[in-house]
Specification:
The chain is mainly α. The chain has a single domain, classed as Arc Repressor Mutant, subunit A (Orthogonal Bundle), CATH 1.10.10. It has six helices and two strands, in the order αααββααα. Strands 1-2 form a two-stranded antiparallel ribbon. The longest helix is centred in the last third of the chain and has 22 residues, at 129-150.
Length: 151
């Protein structure tokens, strides 16, 4: 598996905050409900994101969490790497491979796995949270247009 559940939740939490960038703090309960994340798990994730410098928080009745970095300057890859979720596509790659390959340097497939890994990282690193916001907007706009043709 390339992306852990924790990393998926972290990306969804950051996405929720990115959509409200510059609007002030967002309450944990609002993020949890919008993104279907268990609130207790979300608290842990947001605390880690705060330690990583991706988000900050404000206390009090008007408090909550907010993004520190503008959505167009934060890639999905940075969040995934922070949570250590970008794994190699096959177990025989990486610093600590689970399976030692008997073929080692003579493996004809290794260049394929390396290309696949680079392609996956490229997609994650070139996709910002602003890109995701725009994709969501396009999706909603297309849905609204197609719905109007039905009526």
């Amino acid at each position: 598996m390339i992306v852990s559940k924790k990393s998926k939740y972290a990306m969804r939490a950051v996405f929720s905050l990115a959509k409200r960038f510059g609007e002030g703090p967002v309450k944990i309960a609002d993020i949890a409900e919008e993104q279907s994340i268990p609130p207790r798990f979300l608290e842990v994730i947001l605390s880690q994101l705060k330690q990583g410098g991706f988000v900050d928080s404000r206390r009090g009745s008007e408090g909550g969490y907010y993004m520190v970095t503008p959505p167009d300057q934060l890639s999905v890859g940075k969040i995934l790497r922070f949570f250590d979720a970008l794994k190699e596509p096959v177990e025989c790659m990486g610093d600590n491979p689970k399976e030692k390959c008997d073929l080692k340097a003579n493996c004809v497939f290794m260049p394929l796995w390396e290309d696949l890994s680079a392609a996956i990282s490229g997609v994650f690193d070139s996709t910002t949270f602003q890109d995701l916001i725009l994709k969501e907007k396009e999706k909603k706009d297309c849905g609204a247009k197609s719905l109007s043709y039905v009526i």
